[in-house]
């Protein structure tokens, strides 16, 4: 799944469960540092909260290893893991969820906590707007000046970004192509120019 869904806008939801206030905030984050920065921000803004439990997934949700969660003082496994479990089953990546609790005097028990924290994330995701994020891969190659028009004609039918033609002894072409179209584009160029292409190192 080279492309995946990500949060398109921030969302906050609030619930009162047995007098405790639970505020779940969901944001789009593209790095672990950004996720941790948002968690730190909430800790600073609401120092009187009883807990700031959190979970995040950075990158493609079907393949990423960049994930984390925390119970932030709640009984082990009752907050962060239920929150992360909901995120993992949502198919959404580049996402952080923080559930802030203001204790209301009534204990919920481990089952109640699990339902409260997991449920908060579920509630937020029900109203979350998402958009597609496409992963790109670099492609670089050299062509002759006479091949420029044909090259441009081929490229226009693909999902590409950052196309650059560097005019030197030959034309050095660099671009970003959607991963799922990478091999197809490379083959199309190869076929058009009968293999007379100088490929550069790609990542």
UniProtKB/TrEMBL annotation:
InterPro entries: EFG_III/V, Impact, Impact_N, Impact_N_sf, Impact_YigZ-like, Ribosomal_Su5_D2-typ_SF
One annotated GO molecular function: ribonucleoside triphosphate phosphatase activity
Impact N-terminal domain location: 18-124
Signal peptide positions on this chain: none
Origin: domain of life: Bacteria
GO BP terms in the entry: regulation of translational initiation
One of the record's GO cellular component terms: cytoplasm
PANTHER family from the UniProt entry: IMPACT FAMILY MEMBER YIGZ, IMPACT-RELATED
NCBIfam families linked to this entry: IMPACT_YIGZ
Membership in a protein family: Belongs to the IMPACT family.
Protein name: YigZ family protein
Organism: Aliikangiella marina
């Amino acid at each position: 799944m080279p492309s995946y869904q990500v949060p398109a806008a921030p969302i906050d939801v609030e619930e009162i469960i047995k007098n405790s206030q639970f505020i779940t905030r969901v944001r789009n984050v593209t790095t672990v540092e950004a996720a941790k920065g948002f968690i730190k921000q909430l800790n600073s803004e609401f120092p009187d909260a009883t807990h700031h439990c959190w979970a995040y997934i950075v990158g493609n949700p079907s393949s990423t290893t960049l994930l984390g969660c925390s119970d932030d003082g709640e009984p082990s496994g009752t907050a962060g893991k239920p929150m992360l479990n909901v995120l993992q089953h949502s198919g959404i990546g580049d996402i952080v969820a923080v559930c802030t609790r203001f204790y209301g005097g009534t204990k919920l028990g481990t089952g109640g906590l699990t339902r409260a924290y997991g449920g908060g994330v579920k509630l937020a995701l029900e109203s979350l707007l998402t958009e597609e994020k496409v992963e790109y891969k670099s492609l670089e190659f050299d062509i002759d000046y006479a091949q420029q028009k044909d090259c441009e004609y081929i490229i226009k039918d693909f999902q590409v970004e950052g196309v650059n033609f560097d005019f030197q002894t030959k034309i050095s072409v660099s671009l970003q192509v959607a991963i799922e179209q990478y091999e197809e584009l490379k083959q199309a160029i190869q076929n058009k120019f009968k293999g007379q292409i100088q490929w550069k190192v790609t990542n």
